[in-house]
Amino acid sequence: MEQELEQTIGIRIRTLRMDKGLTLDDLATASGVSRAMISRIERAEASPTASLLARVCAALGLSLSEFFAEEGQAASPISRRQDQQVWRDPETGYMRRAVSPPGTESEVDIVDVEFPAGARVSFPPHTASRGMTQHVWLFDGELEMTVGETVHRLKPGDCLFMPVGDGHVFHNPGHAPARYCVVLDHRTR
Question: How many domains does the structure of the chain reveal?
Answer without folding.
Answer: 2
